[in-house]
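This part of the workshop introduces the protein records we will be handling. A record pairs a protein's sequence with a compact description of its fold. Comparing a sequence with its tokens is the quickest way to learn the format. To make this concrete, we reproduce a full record directly below:
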Amino acid sequence: MSAHIFGRTLSGVAGSLRCGITLAALGAAACTSTPATKAGLHPVQISFDARVGEKPLKCGESYANVGSSKATILPQDFRIYLSEVRLIARDGREVPLALTPDDQWQNASVALLDFEDGTGNCNGNKAMNSVVRGSAPDGDYVGLIFQIGIPYDLNHKDPTLAAAPLNYTALTWPWRIGYKFTTIDLETANKTAAPGHGKMAGMPGMNASGFSIHLGSTECGAGSPMTPPDKPCENPNRPTFRLEKFDIARQTVVLDLAALLSGTDVTVNAPSSASGCMAFVDDDDCIAIMDRFGLNFRGKASSGQTFVKAG
């Protein structure tokens, strides 16, 4: 596996180009004439790809043989918040990536990935984003770590007063619970709702013909839904993903929806619960999904995440 070493310059063209680190779908190492933002720091761009098995996830497309019942699904939404991005150095050090605020997809702590464009069955709007941008110091980097989720100190605030990318009210629950770290909504064929379906308090708008994966913090204490908790939620539900052997010059981070749903029947719904998995401990639809996110659930340790891989 090749590594990427910052601080190396290439001469022989007009001026000199300083190499940056790019994880792009085309897989090419990139050099840029953009100067480092600070002395010793270099631009980093990490590319992500949402897929259903071997197929790219796209609005307006249908995907067969998904989940334990081999169902057909159509995407309606696929947006994910990331934080705690780190590069793994060859000597094992974890070097934080300083995110670059852009007033749309990133602030200094959180990045939003958006794989829907509002066409077909999809919600949302035309704008999309599949990259995380930041800067890192000189180093020999061989891997990547990141977290799905929003830090506690940002997770329980009024989204109508928040700056981008935390200003999307469609990506939130009431303040006490916080944001949906993943907003994955699907239309499913032959959906069967169990008795009591869709009656979970505070979860309006669930589509009886669909299946959602809304990962977020739960068990956030008693009190008004519109007030923040006074301590971190009992179940933070922020999975960390570690790609130890990741070619940062050539590879892309793949988010595989088929792998996430491989143990779940998306055509049925657990009794007395919202459609799909809302991350609550009493929702049987979450059992296999939380395991594949790499999260402990109902006191049982995960057998290992399958959602994220190098591509």
Residues 4-310 form one domain.
